[in-house]
């Protein structure tokens, strides 16, 4: 899998599938592998681009402050380097913050925007958690860190599945590209320093805001704020899943995403061409 040099770092990415380009931006503590469970549904219809944010996975991990805007610039540079002019953009959590900054800085690059479990600005409890999650890695090992974080990501129902949480922790411990402590610190501060509240109205592309009803990290009220602030935004609240619904409810998430983009295509067509397009899409 290839790397490209952008903004002084090496950014690791992969591309799978054919069709219109669809870009996936992962959130805090996650690299491109976080999308694995919904990839089969997406690559059957789209050219799916995943990458590791600076500091994560196999991308460079400089021990220096970064911002959400800087990570959005990394994305824009990546698209330029791989020759993608326009793309559907999906961001989860911090990845949704990056996606917002991408469309604000480079609106011509974005066909549509899908914000999963994301936010414009955190409240007091959220900010306290993210600050702690940035500070904690130098004090505890990865196993304990995961045990602290995961209750905020997954629902009671997911915890009740025998061996599920233990399996996720084991996967994280044995993962060959674990996050570095300084990366988690710098990413946490980037999240805390991000605020798009007063600029949401500048986002004019079709936007889907999707959140799990049981999300206690980025609760429904955060997504409501996004949907109310963004012109042409649609809010969908899934009954199943919390912040980690890409793992808990991947089929439901993929279905809502695909239906949203399909509807955009149909709305852009007229008459008989629209009917034929529907046949082709279904």
From TrEMBL:
The Peptidase S33 tripeptidyl aminopeptidase-like C-terminal domain, residue ranges: 203-268
Ranges of residues in domain AB hydrolase-1: 21-132
InterPro entries: AB_hydrolase, AB_hydrolase_1, AB_hydrolase_fold, Epox_hydrolase-like, Pept_S33_TAP-like_C
Top-rank lineage group of the source organism: Bacteria
Keywords, comma-separated and alphabetical: Hydrolase
MF annotations from Gene Ontology: hydrolase activity
Keyword flag Signal: no
Name of the protein in question: Alpha/beta hydrolase
Naturally occurring in which organism (per UniProt): Nostoc minutum NIES-26
């Amino acid at each position: 899998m290839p790397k490209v040099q952008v903004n002084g770092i090496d950014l690791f990415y992969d591309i799978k599938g054919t069709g219109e380009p669809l870009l996936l931006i992962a959130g805090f503590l996650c690299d491109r592998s976080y999308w694995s469970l919904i990839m089969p549904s997406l690559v059957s219809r789209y050219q799916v681009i995943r990458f590791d944010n600076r500091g994560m996975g196999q991308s460079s991990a400089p021990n220096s402050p970064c911002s959400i805007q800087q990570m959005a610039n990394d994305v824009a540079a990546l698209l330029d380097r791989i020759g993608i002019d326009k793309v559907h953009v999906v961001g989860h959590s911090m990845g949704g913050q990056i996606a917002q900054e991408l469309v604000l800085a480079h609106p011509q690059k974005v066909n549509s925007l899908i914000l999963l479990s994301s936010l414009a600005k955190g409240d007091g409890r959220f900010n306290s958690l993210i600050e702690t999650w940035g500070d904690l890695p130098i004090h505890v090992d990865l196993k304990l860190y995961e045990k602290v974080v995961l209750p905020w990501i997954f629902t009671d129902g997911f915890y009740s599945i025998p061996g599920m949480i233990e399996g996720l922790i084991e996967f994280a411990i044995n993962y060959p590209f674990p996050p570095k402590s300084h990366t988690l610190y710098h990413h946490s501060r980037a999240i805390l320093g991000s605020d798009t509240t007063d600029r949401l109205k500048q986002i004019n592309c079709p936007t889907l805001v999707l959140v799990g009803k049981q999300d206690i990290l980025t609760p429904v009220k955060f997504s409501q704020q996004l949907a109310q602030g963004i012109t042409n935004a649609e809010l969908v609240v899934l009954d199943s899943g919390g912040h980690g619904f890409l793992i808990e409810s991947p089929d439901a998430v993929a279905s809502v995403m695909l239906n949203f983009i399909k509807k955009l295509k149909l709305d852009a067509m007229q008459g008989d061409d629209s009917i034929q397009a529907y046949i082709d899409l279904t």
